[in-house]
Structure formats: C-alpha cells, structure tokens
Amino acid sequence: MSRQPFDRWAAEQLDVDPEVLVTAKVIAAFDLLLSRLEAAAGRGARNPLVTISGKRAGGNSRACTRRMLEQLGFTPGQRRAVHRLLAGSPSGWPGLLRLYAENVALDARQRQYARRQLLCLRGKQPEPPRERATVRS
Fold it and tell me: What's the gap between Cα 101 and its chain centre?
C-alpha cells in the first residue's frame, strides 16, 4: 500500500490538481468502494475486489454499489467511468484501487486511460487520439 493518502497519490499519478479529483467525486467514490471492499473482506471474501467490479460481482452487490454511486449523483455513464477508473475493466486495466494498494506507479498508457475516464466523470468528452505524423523521404 502506498504511504501517501489516496487523493495525493492519485493526483500525482494522473498529473492533475487534487481538487479535480474532489470535484469529479473520485475521492467520494473511492471512500464508498473502499467501504464495500472492507465489508467484503470482513465477511471473508477471497477476493474483495470482485465485490466492486461491474461485471464479476453478484447481482445484489452490483445493485448495492450502483445505488450508492447514484446517491453520489453519478449518471449511468459516470458510474461506468468511475467503475473503470477505480475498480478496473475486463480489458485488463487493473484500476486505481489495485494500483494504489500495490503501490504501483502508472505507466504512460495507464495514465492516458485513467485520464480519459476522469474526463468522462467531469462530463467532458475525451479528445480522439492524434494522428501520428509520417516522415516522408
């Protein structure tokens, strides 16, 4: 686990002002999901991270997490983005929670992915990838 609080670690990893994470409700969502993880661990879950996953969690667990995120004011698109950002995705992104717990620094590709999810949370559309310039001889 990182020795820094999550908000400072995440701001540093994503190269954003910590206030951006607060206004996008990332810190509130982190606290919510962390409480779900702790409850699952307290009930003896082998892998508490499954409890907060959007795909692998049981129906009641998904519904509970969805209601809690709705109470924070997230729209359906923002709920998907916060799940991907914090809990990971089926495509292989481990999620900030796991990376923070393992004290892993994000590489450039992970940082780019996480920043796109953060843009979605802030209600902005990510810019399409820039085309690479080709060098002609």
Answer: 13
Q: Under a CB-based contact definition with an 8 Å cutoff, are residues 103 and 96 in contact?
A: no
Strand, helix or coil at 81? helix
Longest dimension (CA), the chain: 65
Instruction: Tell me how far apart the alpha carbons of residues 121 and 115 are, in angstroms, rounded to a whole number.
Output: 10
38 vs 10, higher pLDDT: 10
Write the single-letter amino acid at 47.
N
- The alpha carbon dihedral of 69, 72, 73, 78 has a sign of negative
pLDDT tens-digit series, residues 73-91: 989 889 889 988 998 887 8
Query: What sign does the dihedral 26-27-31-37 (CA atoms) show?
Result: positive
